[in-house]
């Protein structure tokens, strides 16, 4: 487990704090805002997170590290809320992290570059008795998948996407909360660093050696199914993304889901920024995306898409409702934006399918 109830976080998101550029920061603000003392970003300093993101309340955005650490009664940990280009830490960030460790603040990082392995930070943290949580560091001795996830009694649902960063994790967390509220024993399985920060356990599968991605997913489903009737697996990437499709396929085959929720940002027509190149991969229609995922899963464990989850954050109310109606009409499946609107249509579909599967 990673969660520590007493921690109060200063989030470092310098230069990139925004609706689409700071996924880790944004999700932590959404799901445990009471534990965030401030966000460090010199571009948006002077604003609140509500001003920048449209949610999160009065958490301040500050330009000075020392000022940020002192906010909200004082931070007890520093959380890296964005991924700098190439995963490398800017020199100024190194100074901030050094200062944090010297103050005996924990470091929570989701970078591919492991802070604990740094020649300076590792020994310094050990000398100060400070924990560095590198959430992307995979556990040892992961297995090669052998289909055991298909044998669990729980009903397993995987979120899949038309692209990266369209709301797969958020969808599953919203659905989990509503299912639990309705009395269903439901677990959320984190497969990325942000989900691990929120939920307290999981494996960041994009940092796992390719041969063991499906095995990592399988192990997570087996753990998530213990004592639960429904397992919601966080999705990663997209089968049509030229950079991340391998991770997506590993999750799809390893988790052996009984059902899929297809996630899409309603205004996105092409795969988003691909390492700075002009987007060239056009996102297919809903029906084509559904076919792609169901066909890819079928040889290992047949499954089907049972609902559409939309991200409509950049649309006005009328356009968002129209997008939901379009998705429903084109697919014949329930659709909603579970953050902006009710999650009920998708939760109803999950309950119905789980009962039929028994």
Commentary on this structure:
By secondary structure, this protein is α/β, with parallel strands linked by helices. Helix content is 35%, strand content 15%. The chain contains twelve helices and twelve strands. It has helices spanning 23-31, 49-53, 65-70, 91-102, 121-128, 168-181, 193-199, 213-224, 245-255, 286-297, 317-331, 344-357, and strands at 9-12, 36-40, 61-62, 77-80, 106-109, 132-134, 155-161, 186-189, 230-233, 259-265, 305-311, 335-336. It has a six-stranded parallel sheet, sandwiched between helices. α2 (49-53) links the parallel β2 and β3 (61-62). α8 (213-224) crosses α9 (245-255). The longest helix is centred in the C-terminal third of the chain and has 15 residues, at 317-331.
Tally of separate helices: 12
What is the H/E string? EHEHEHEHEHEEHEHHEHEHEHEH
Helical fraction:
25-40%
User: What structural class should be given to the helix and strand makeup?
Assistant: alpha/beta
Secondary structure tally: strands: 12
Describe the biggest sheet? Answer: 6 strands, parallel
Q: Strand order across the biggest sheet? A: 3-2-1-4-5-6
Question: What does the radius of gyration come to?
Answer: 20 Å
Distance between the termini: 31 Å
List segments where confidence is low: pLDDT < 50 over at least 5 consecutive residues.
Answer: none
Taken from the alpha-carbon principal axes, the silhouette is globular
Q: What's the rounded overall pLDDT mean?
A: 95
Beta strand %: 5-15%
């Amino acid at each position: 487990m990673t969660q520590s109830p007493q921690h109060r976080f200063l989030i470092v998101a310098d230069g990139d704090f925004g609706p689409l550029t700071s996924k880790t920061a944004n999700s932590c603000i959404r799901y445990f805002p009471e534990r965030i003392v401030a966000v460090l970003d010199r571009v948006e300093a002077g604003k609140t997170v509500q001003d920048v993101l449209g949610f999160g309340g009065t958490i301040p955005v500050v330009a000075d590290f020392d000022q940020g650490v002192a906010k909200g009664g004082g931070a007890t940990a520093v959380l890296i809320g964005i991924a700098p280009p190439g995963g490398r830490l800017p020199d100024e960030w190194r100074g901030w992290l050094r200062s944090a460790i010297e103050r005996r603040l924990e470091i929570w990082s989701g970078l591919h570059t492991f802070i604990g392995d740094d020649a300076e930070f590792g020994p310094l943290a050990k000398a100060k008795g400070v924990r560095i949580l590198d959430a992307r560091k995979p556990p040892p001795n992961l297995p090669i998948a052998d289909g055991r996830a298909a044998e669990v009694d729980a009903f397993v649902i995987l979120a899949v996407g038309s692209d990266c960063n369209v709301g797969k994790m958020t969808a599953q967390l919203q659905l989990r909360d509503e299912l639990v509220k309705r009395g269903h024993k439901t677990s959320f399985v984190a497969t990325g660093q942000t989900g691990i920060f929120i939920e307290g356990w999981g494996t960041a599968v994009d940092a796992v050696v390719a041969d063991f991605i499906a095995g990592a997913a399988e192990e997570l489903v087996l753990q998530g199914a213990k004592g639960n009737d429904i397992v919601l697996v966080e999705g990663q990437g997209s089968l049509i993304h030229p950079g991340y499709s391998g991770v997506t396929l590993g999750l799809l085959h390893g988790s052996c889901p009984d059902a899929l929720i297809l996630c899409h940002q309603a205004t996105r027509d092409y795969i988003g920024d691909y390492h700075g190149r002009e987007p060239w991969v056009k996102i297919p229609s809903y029906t084509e995306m559904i076919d792609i995922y169901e066909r890819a899963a079928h040889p290992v464990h047949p499954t089907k898409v049972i609902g559409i989850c939309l991200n409509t954050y950049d649309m006005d109310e009328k356009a968002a409702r129209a997008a939901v109606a379009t998705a429903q009409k084109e697919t014949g499946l329930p659709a909603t934006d579970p953050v902006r609107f009710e999650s009920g249509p998708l939760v109803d579909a999950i309950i119905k399918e789980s009962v039929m599967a028994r």
